[in-house]
Amino acid sequence: MTGSSSGIGEAIAKLLATEGITVVVHGRDEGRANAVAEAIRATGGKAEVALGDLTTDAGAEAVATAALAGGPIDILVNNAGFIGYLSWEQTTTADWAETYNTNVISSVRMIKHLVPQMRERHWGRVIQIGGGLSQQPSAIMPHYNASLAARHNLAVSLARELTDTGVTSNVVAPGAILTEGFQTALTHMAQAHGWGDAWEEIERNATQAMAPNDTGRFGRPQEIAMAVAYLASPLADYISGATIRVDGGTVRTVI
Ligand SMILES: NC(=O)c1ccc[n+]([C@@H]2O[C@H](COP(=O)([O-])OP(=O)(O)OC[C@H]3O[C@@H](n4cnc5c(N)ncnc54)[C@H](OP(=O)(O)O)[C@@H]3O)[C@@H](O)[C@H]2O)c1
């Protein structure tokens, strides 16, 4: 479960733990990762911690080795990543390369380390956290949008590669999700944008301005976690190469 020391990843780790799964909490920050693992253990779940930066081959290898020290891994959720709020004009080619490395090649590194042992045991789940911006990109964050598209694309290629192995590969594509950090940022932005004072009003107006959708609100990290839990379960044996959008209808297939 990469990038589970905060945000969406934290919610996924906590939900999978309530399903009886031993989760490996991962991040670079030791304090945050340990806090999530402690919270899981405090509610009767099982959690281990693997720390490390996934942007280098050596870093990813160390994370995989630490994760496998507790036994085989059945489920890989590639969630670690970052969003850079830059425009076309602001982004340098270095930003594009760094974003691709962090958001895409980090996932590939974990796939290369963990999928072979899933194949050997004839069961496994690989789940990429993608996003609606992969299909409906905005003018801003072009490097980020493109990295999400690559995550979707590689998940389907991997599904075809894993034909007849018992291992599936899928994508969960969130819309705009209300993580703690995002809520704080919106609350600070509210006055300048005239979004109101009460949180309910701020959320309604910010959603309309930033990610209009059929529910009139942002998604919650737990809602992404529920889709991941479904794909990770035996209930989803017949699903591979698919994308489950959890975005309240942000991405429009029919206008
Ligand atoms: N939030 C949204 O609305 C949204 C929508 C669509 C898709 N997504 C995707 O969902 C994922 C999680 O987003 P979030 O909003 O929950 O972000 P977040 O709260 O910033 O969490 C990111 C996680 O990734 C880890 N991480 C970042 N860079 C890393 C690196 N180089 N090596 C290892 N770990 C790294 C962080 O751990 P440390 O800080 O401890 O290193 C943290 O656990 C991202 O991949 C993002 O692209 C988010």
From TrEMBL:
Pfam families given in the database record: adh_short
InterPro entries tied to this protein: NAD(P)-bd_dom_sf, SDR, SDR_fam
Membership in a protein family: Belongs to the short-chain dehydrogenases/reductases (SDR) family.
UniProt protein name: 3-oxoacyl-ACP reductase
